[in-house]
Each structure stands twice: as structure tokens, then as C-alpha cells.
Design brief:
This protein is of the alpha+beta class. It is 47% helix and 33% strand.
Amino acid sequence: MFTRMKNIDTAFRYVRGFTMLVIAGCVIICCYTLYRSFGSVAQMQDRVYILANGKALEAYASERKDNVPVEARDHVKSFHKLFFTLDPDDKVIKTNITKALYLADDSAKRIYDDLKENNFYSGIISGNISQTIQIDSVSIDVREYPYRFKCYARQNIIRTTSILKRSLLTEGALRNVSRSDNNPHGFLIERFNTVENKDLSAEARK
């Protein structure tokens, strides 16, 4: 009788131990599965698909700090192209300047107001003058915030009878702001200043 009871007790302990091992194994497997699932979801969120010309292209997201110099240079270039590209059309001028002023603070607005007060834009329209800009380079110092920049460019002022070429050197700082449709890079130009803007050459139009 006692031997049979002892065997039953031993068997019960074995079954209980085996059951505990199975439960522990299930818990470990579930935790590992959840860990891997969260990792996969996070990895998938770093990927976006862009539809271009009917083809799906895969792109990878990255931290903003990895792209600061690239985005900052593009922001500065976009501002300069909008602010300094002019045609003898009041609507075109207002459209470009409005877009440009979303990318900068009141330091750029003051320059625009001064030019407008001095009838610069009226002269562009009445003289049928077009102004284009070519960006040579943009240097960004990301060691300190706000990020300082310098933009080296050339201007072509196209008149009816001649083309005037000018050098342009500007400087300013960039601070972070929220991204929007009007400001996709999420930067704002501050303390914008024209360091140099001098004539290089003039040539007659044929």
C-alpha cells in the first residue's frame, strides 16, 4: 500500500515538473515571438514606398540628424531660387516671394519691403527685366545651433539689350521649425544678410 502511494506521489511530482517546464517553455516562446514581432513592425515603419512613373520604389527612413546638412543646403537653395528668380510679371513675383518668405523670418521680409519701397520690383516689370540665379555652393556649419550658412551664387540680369552678371554672397542661420506644405524641410532662415552683390561682367544681347 505504502509503496503504491509512494509511486503515485513520485509520478505526480514528475507530471508537475514536466507541466511547469512546458509552461515555462511556452512563456519563453511567446515572449520571443512578441519581441521579434515588435522588431519587425519597427523595421517596417522605417520603410516607405514611393510611386513614380507607375513603379513602386522602396525608400528607408532615417534620423533627422543624419540628413541635416543635406536638407539644410536644399532649404537654402530653395529660398534663394524663389527670392531671387524674378520675371516682369507682378503675379509671378508675388507668388515666388510669398513662397520664399515662408522659409525665412522677418529679416528677409525687411529686405523685400526695402526693395519694394525703392521701386525695385516696379522697375523689373516696367523694364521687362528677368533675373535668374545659379547656386554655386552652400556651406553649412552644423557644429553649433542655430546652424550658420553661407551661400555663393551668381545672378543673371537679363534686359532687352544686355545681360548683366553679378556675384552674390549671402549668410544667415537656420533653426528648426515644424514641417509643413509651405516649409517641407522644417527649417527657418534667420538673420538673413547679403554680404556681397557686385557686377562681374556685362554683355550685349544679339
